[in-house]
Design a protein that fits this description.
heterodimer; A: alpha+beta; Beta-Lactamase; Helix Hairpins; Heat Shock Protein 90; 3 domains; rod-shaped; B: alpha/beta; Rossmann fold; OB fold (Dihydrolipoamide Acetyltransferase, E2P); binds adenosine-5'-triphosphate; binds magnesium ion
Chain lengths: 511, 267
């Protein structure tokens, strides 16, 4: 699984980079080529304008030797292939290559094509129409630019009278420049691209692989290993949550899941144990009960007949008593093995409060105790045994009433919602204006059999409260000021789940 | 009807059978014995018995079979079931099937005598007592007192209160079958009552014990404060002022299904 995901990712990344870089490279090369060509074009044009203007004076003065000289000088410059001037008939009048002078230019040749394409000579041409690229002899690419020399009054009125005024175009200046340097650079660029693209692909893929390994594969591997450990039965295994990202959260929920699993397993084990214990004790009890009936009956008969104040009577009394104790032990075992878990439902705590108040109402009224109720409406429901929760409140209310005594006082009971680190809770407070709890006794009030009421109290009230609250996953706290009063604060989790915090975490996460 | 027979004991376990016989003989009762249901039926066909005392677990047909058969063929014969151990199911089932009561093993002399005396007295005065405690009916509920009353056979009752608590007490005919009550033992507040298990022990002269089975499970809120001063309240008004304890029921919805809803027969 591991290699497949990373390989697939790698191939996908490489293909993406290849396509992207190729497109980018090609468009770069093309635009570079265009830019360089037009640069050359501009140079050629400028050059041809320079030649035209510098030869003009010599022409007007009809000094061909000067024209030749200028053209020769320019033609020798680097990058210039050819400079020619030919007349309307196509006869070369001047050229840097003397051999060409006097030769006729073929009108279909590349240099003439622009004007003579339609067989009718055009007289005004744009720059792009005047330029052409072509392969010169030897396959070298070259750029040619023609520059028509137009007739002007100064020409026709010149002393030489070489050109009549009716002529519009007197001849054409043709400059050819080599594209060799451009081509050389373009080739170099292409070579560079061919090396760069694979290198980039390699680098990017490598980078992604390294990142993938450390960011995804390793934590995933850790999780897979942890899952294997848990699957092999070690439910105590926990991952150390190191990271703050999705994997960190995954680790957290993995731990929560394992915890829950362990808890569930413990419960199953426990209930299995209880179930088999139940079957066992039921069987044993059945077997023991028969002989025990005999023991009880016969020893009781013997006891009836035993002479009063005899040692035998005492002995038989012991037998009967112990047989009855056996019976209680067996019964206790049966009760234990038959314990059914209390059934839990969704509960509105306000109803619980009202029910509890309904039950103790009379008692409070008789004692002249004023009850103030502050209940929050729309209280979220808690999960539990409503009757047991009523019991909790009854115990608290009865204690409050006891603390107030007969001289009258007040009890405040309120409900509300409290968000704690553990999640949402319903909070119920029972406060009284009674005698309060001495500081050194506060820690003991929940202990079984702790009572300050002598024989009047059993001291089990708050122990029962504690037990029920624990069973509901809640908490109870007591705050007391001696002589002023006592407040019991009860917290019950809203729809008790193992980790209510995780829902909050994901709520404000970006996705 | 050649022989007189007060009690037929059906039990396969010898020591229990003999113990029961011994206890009953001390009461000067005529006792017949059977090992299984077939033997019991044979005896019942030959003799008219006032009471059948049968174990539940018997070889072959069970005590429940014998119970059903007896109620059908000899309706004036009462049946008390001996259970291996009391469970909700057994308790509720025995009453549902028409048993007079049940007695869990191991019992002692006073406990067996208590239930046998009550059963024999009931069978002696059957028509009058039946009139006192009508069988299950869904009639219109006459008054508030009869509202929400649920019965475990003709044995005990539970009344639900609007505040969520319930009072428990003994059924109309129960006190009529007792000897003079000497003492009443009730669970203390915060103890638990369990459906089909011991709710109260009523002690009478001669170490006789009458056991009351609870119709509902719950946590005990309080015992009837008046009853400790005047035990005869049970006798005078078992369904009213003579209530025994008040509880917070635990598993009300499920447990009520197992009880009979009817009105009180008294007054
Ligand atoms: N509201 C209160 N004000 C002052 N003291 C209190 C209050 N609630 C409880 N106590 C103290 O805690 C002790 C234990 O209370 P608990 O309910 O467990 O037993 P009890 O009330 O003494 O007896 P029981 O509830 O079994 O009849 C009380 O005896 C009393 O001293
Ligand atoms: Mg208390």
């Amino acid at each position: 699984m591991r290699s497949q995901i990373s390989h697939r990712l790698m191939v996908a990344v490489a293909a993406t980079i290849l396509v992207a870089f190729s497109l980018f490279g090609v468009s770069l090369i093309v635009s570079q080529h265009e830019a360089m060509t037009s640069e050359i074009e501009l140079q050629a044009n400028q050059l041809s304008e320079t030649i035209k203007s510098s030869t003009r004076y010599a022409m007007l003065r009809n000094r061909p030797d000067q024209v030749h000289e200028i053209i020769d000088t320019i033609g020798q410059q680097e990058g210039i292939d050819q400079v020619r001037i030919f007349n309307k008939e196509g006869k070369v009048s001047y050229a840097d290559e003397k051999a060409l002078i006097g030769s006729l230019v073929d009108k279909d040749a590349e240099s003439c094509y622009a004007c003579h394409a339609a067989d009718a000579p055009l007289e005004r041409l744009s720059m792009s129409e005047r330029t052409r690229t072509f392969r010169a002899n030897g396959g070298r690419r070259a750029l040619g630019i023609i520059n028509p020399i137009y007739n002007t009054p100064s020409c026709s009125e010149s002393d030489c009278h070489a050109h009549p005024a009716s002529q519009t175009v007197l001849g054409v200046l043709d400059v050819t420049m080599s594209l060799e340097s451009v081509d050389r650079q373009m080739a170099a660029n292409r070579r560079r691209a061919l090396i760069l693209v694979p290198a980039a692909i390699l680098a990017a893929s490598g980078m992604i692989w390294i990142l993938f390994r450390s960011l995804v594969l390793k934590p995933m591997q850790r999780l897979v290993e942890a899952t294997d450990v848990v699957a092999s039965g070690n439910l105590d295994y926990r991952l150390e949550v190191k990271r703050n990202d999705e994997f960190g959260r995954l680790d957290e929920s993995f731990n929560a899941m394992t915890e829950k699993l362990a808890e569930a397993q413990k419960q199953i084990l426990q209930s299995n144990k209880l179930a088999s214990l139940g079957q066992l004790t039921a069987g044993i009890a059945h077997e023991i009960n028969n002989p025990l009936t005999g023991v009880l009956t016969y020893s009781s008969f013997l006891l009836k007949r035993a002479p009063a104040d005899s040692e035998m009577k005492e002995d038989l009394e012991t037998v009967v008593r112990e047989a009855k104790r056996c019976r209680e032990i067996v019964k206790g075992l049966l009760d234990f093995s038959r314990q059914v878990p209390t059934r839990k439902t969704s509960i509105d705590c306000n109803q619980v409060i009202d029910r509890a108040l309904g039950i103790v109402d009379n008692q409070l009224g008789v004692r002249n105790i004023q009850v103030t109720k502050t209940l929050q409406t729309d209280l979220p429901e808690v999960t539990g045994d409503a009757n047991q929760l009523v019991q909790v409140l009854i115990n608290l209310l009865v204690n409050a009433a006891d603390a107030i005594g007969d001289q009258g006082g007040e009890i405040f009971i309120s409900s509300g919602v409290k968000d704690l680190n553990g999640g949402r809770h319903v909070e119920i407070k029972v406060a009284d204006t009674g005698c309060g709890i001495p500081r050194d006794q506060v820690d003991q009030v929940f202990d079984p059999f702790f009572t300050s009421k002598g024989t009047e109290g059993t001291g089990l009230g708050l122990a029962v409260v504690w037990g029920i609250v624990q069973e509901h996953g809640g908490a109870i706290r007591v705050d007391s000021k001696p002589e002023r009063g006592t407040t019991f604060t009860l917290l019950l989790p809203v729809h008790f789940t193992l980790r209510p915090t995780t829902t909050e975490d994901t709520d404000d996460a970006p996705m | 009807m050649t022989h007189r027979c007060d009690v037929l004991v059906v039990e396969d376990e010898l020591v229990v059978r003999e113990a029961a016989r011994k206890i009953l003989l001390e009461e000067n009762l005529a006792v017949a014995m059977a090992n299984d249901v077939d033997e019991a039926v044979a005896i019942l066909e030959g003799t008219s018995c006032r009471l059948v005392l049968t174990d539940l677990m018997l070889p072959g047909a069970s005590g429940f079979d014998l119970l059903g058969l007896t109620r059908k063929r000899w309706p004036s014969t009462e049946v008390v079931v001996i259970t291996g151990y009391a469970t909700v199911d057994h308790a509720v089932m025995t009453f549902r099937e028409g048993a007079f009561d049940f007695v869990p093993k191991p019992f002692d002399i006073g406990e067996l005598l208590g239930v046998v005396r009550r059963a024999l007295r009931f069978s002696a005065d059957r028509p009058a007592l039946l009139a006192l405690a009508p069988s299950t009916s869904e009639d219109e509920v006459a008054d508030e007192r009869n509202d929400s009353c649920y019965f475990l056979g003709r044995h005990s009752w539970a009344r639900l209160h609007t505040d969520g608590s319930a009072t428990l007490g003994v059924a109309e005919t129960f006190p009529r079958l007792l000897d003079k009550i000497e003492q009443l033992e009730l669970p203390a507040p915060e103890e638990h009552s369990r459906q089909g298990q011991l709710l109260a022990r009523i002690l009478a002269q001669g170490e006789i014990v009458y056991r009351v089975w609870s119709p509902l499970s719950g946590t005990v809120l309080a015992a009837n404060p008046r009853i400790s001063h005047s035990i005869d309240l049970i006798d005078r008004d078992p369904c009213g002022a003579g209530w025994l304890i008040r509880i917070i029921p635990h598993d009300l919805d499920r447990e009520l299904e197992l009880l009979d809803r009817r009105r009180f027969g008294l007054e």
